[in-house]
């Protein structure tokens, strides 16, 4: 079967913020993926599901690019790992778009296992966002317009994103709301409550915990 590069050496990347912009790299990868529009019949459904997730991520990275500068090294390392997962995903989607129809039909089971591996990698990559290290809190606090736009993007992810994206968005929102109650009010303005309730019922285990924690903050803020 077509071999995809699963592991990339993070140390091989230049971590200097002056020479390496991980968000820009990630943005380019996502843009290149969403341009794929035709997939082989045997993998069409899964491919379109992945591309839809990439389109949601594109919205998030466009917001983050303006908010997360400069990066601490640990933030760059995390973003580089995210990029590696996205490149692995891109390789799979390219295979499903341009690979041999006969080969893909014969290797359907193997390809589906690879899709599951991609989902696992994406979940792991977005599971623990180092909010402090990549500067989300400080940067958002300093930009009122950016705050509104960023919170709105998080709420949009909780409304229509994949389970992994909802989990990531809930994690980031919890960090923000824990640091400043104004973020809680902003999120409520964008009707986050109903989406948190939905995640509480149907989200991943971690997303449910994060959603419960945000709902608790909302409840406490209403009692003040």
Give your account of this protein's structure.
Pathway: Protein modification; protein ubiquitination. Its EC number is 2.3.2.27. The protein is mostly helical and 224 residues long. It has two domains: 111 residues, no CATH class; 80 residues, no CATH class. Helices cover 75% and strands 0% of the residues. It is built from eleven helices and no strands. 36% of the residues are buried. About 10% of the residues have low confidence.
Spell out the key features of this protein.
224 residues, mainly alpha
Beta-strand content bin: under 5%
Shape: elongated
Low-confidence segments, ≥5 residues, pLDDT <50? 6-18, 137-146
- End-to-end separation: 60 Å
Mean pLDDT: 75
Number of beta strands: 0
Which percent range fits the helix content? over 70%
Radius of gyration: 18 Å
Q: Return the string of H and E elements.
A: HHHHHHHHHHH
Structural class: mainly alpha
Furnish the topology, listing elements before pairings.
Layout: H1 22-34, H2 44-67, H3 73-98, H4 101-106, H5 108-127, H6 136-141, H7 144-160, H8 163-179, H9 181-189, H10 192-202, H11 205-223
Q: How do you describe this structure in short?
A:
Helix content is 75%, strand content 0%. The chain has 224 residues and is an all-alpha fold. It folds into two domains: 17-127, no CATH class; 144-223, no CATH class.
């Amino acid at each position: 079967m077509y071999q995809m590069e699963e592991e990339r050496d993070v140390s091989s990347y230049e971590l200097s913020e002056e020479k390496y912009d991980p968000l820009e790299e990630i943005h380019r990868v996502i843009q290149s993926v969403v341009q794929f529009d035709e997939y082989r019949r045997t993998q069409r459904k899964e491919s379109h599901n992945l591309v839809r997730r990439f389109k949601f991520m594109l919205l998030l990275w466009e917001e983050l690019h303006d908010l997360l500068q400069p990066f601490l090294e640990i933030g760059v390392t995390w973003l580089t790992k995210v990029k590696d997962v996205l490149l692995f995903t891109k390789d799979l989607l390219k295979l499903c778009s341009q690979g041999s129809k006969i080969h893909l039909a014969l290797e359907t089971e193997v390809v589906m296992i690879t899709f599951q591996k991609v989902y696992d990698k994406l979940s792991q990559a977005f599971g623990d966002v180092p909010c402090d290290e990549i500067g989300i809190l400080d940067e958002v606090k300093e930009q009122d317009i950016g705050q509104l736009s960023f919170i709105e993007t998080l709420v949009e992810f909780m409304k229509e994103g994949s389970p992994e994206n909802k989990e990531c968005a809930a994690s980031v929102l919890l960090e923000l709301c824990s640091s400043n109650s104004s973020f809680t009010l902003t999120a409520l303005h964008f009707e986050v409550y109903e989406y948190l309730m939905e995640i509480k019922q149907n989200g991943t285990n971690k997303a449910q915990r994060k959603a419960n924690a945000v709902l608790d903050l909302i409840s406490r803020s209403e009692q003040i």
